[in-house]
Design brief:
This protein has 281 residues and is α/β, with parallel strands linked by helices. The chain is built from 13 helices and ten strands. The strands form two sheets. A five-stranded mixed beta sheet has the order 3-2-1-4-5, sandwiched between helices. Strands 8-7-6-9-10 form a five-stranded mixed beta sheet, with helices on both faces. Keywords: Kinase, Transferase.
């Protein structure tokens, strides 16, 4: 049986592929080797995943946030091996490679993640060929949930929201003011997650001209700063995954046409595509 994982820092989607082709699924907390040891990972997996696995595991393919190189991959591999010692093959890769394989399979294309953050790569034959790097939440991540939320909150604090949006915003977020925003931005962990929480308000009000324009401008920046910098970008389909990509897909497709970019697949999460990628041919 194969075990496939798509992990963020908060949750992990698992798929179990049996020899007869049947697929079962599970969900656990997220695992990130930047913040967890292999012992902590194995302890959690023994409690939350192992009881749901009904057959011996032979292969494991793990894709996740924080798997940035061999050292971090080894933490994940050791944690998995302790729980599934019968597995003879264990791989751990970045969430970007997972998105690339889920979206493009073994074809050539440009793969994108638009969720709390943003990331892109050019892919062929199931491997990343080239990357235009983002600069993270504070200096980049254009088009992401964090960026959308940050831009919205800035507009509110600078008193730039139209009156009807301002009233809606204050009703929904009565405790938001300059002090609480700055505390979450500079003193508390994960400011990207904090600001990404506001992108839902933008989505719910996207038919308002101001909200639509704010989102559209963010996606224009995403295409200008990343997609249009790939060599021969017009020759490839651009595929996207992540909550922002999925829910704002109508606006993204409009901006893509404006930029001369061909959009391919847009999926909310990569796990279904990864399951197809790893199914025996």
């Amino acid at each position: 049986m194969q075990l496939i994982a798509d992990s963020g820092s908060t949750k992990t989607d698992w798929r179990m592929l049996a020899a007869d082709g049947s697929v079962s699924q599970a969900r656990t907390v997220g695992f990130n080797p930047f913040y967890q040891t292999s012992e902590e990972i194995s302890k959690e997996l023994s409690l939350s995943l192992k009881p749901k696995v009904t057959e011996p595991i032979t292969e494991i393919f793990f894709y996740g946030a924080g798997v940035s190189g061999p050292e971090k991959a080894a933490i994940i591999q050791a944690g998995l091996s302790a729980v599934f010692p019968e597995a003879t093959h264990i791989e751990a890769h970045s969430d970007m490679l997972g998105a690339a394989r889920a979206l493009c399979g073994r074809d050539a294309g440009i793969a994108c993640i638009l969720g709390t953050g943003s990331n892109t790569c050019q892919v062929a034959n199931g491997d990343i060929q080239y990357k235009v790097d983002t600069l993270g939440f504070w200096l980049g991540d254009e088009g992401s949930g964090g960026y959308l939320g940050k831009t919205l909150v800035q507009a509110y604090l600078h008193r730039e929201l139209p009156e009807e949006l301002k009233l809606k915003f204050e009703k929904r977020y009565p405790t938001v003011n300059r002090d609480t925003v700055l505390e979450n931005a500079y003193q508390k962990p994960f400011p990207n997650r904090y600001f990404a929480g506001f992108s839902k308000f933008l989505f719910d009000n996207r038919t308002h001209p101001f909200a639509y324009q704010l989102a559209a401008d963010a996606f224009r920046l995403f295409f200008d700063k990343y997609i249009l910098k790939y060599p021969d970008y017009a020759s490839y389909r651009v595929h996207l995954t992540g909550s922002v990509a999925f829910y704002y897909s109508d606006i993204i497709r409009r901006i893509a046409r404006e930029k001369g970019v061909t959009i391919g697949v847009i999926m909310e999460t990569p796990i279904a595509g990864l399951t197809l990628y790893h199914q025996p041919e």
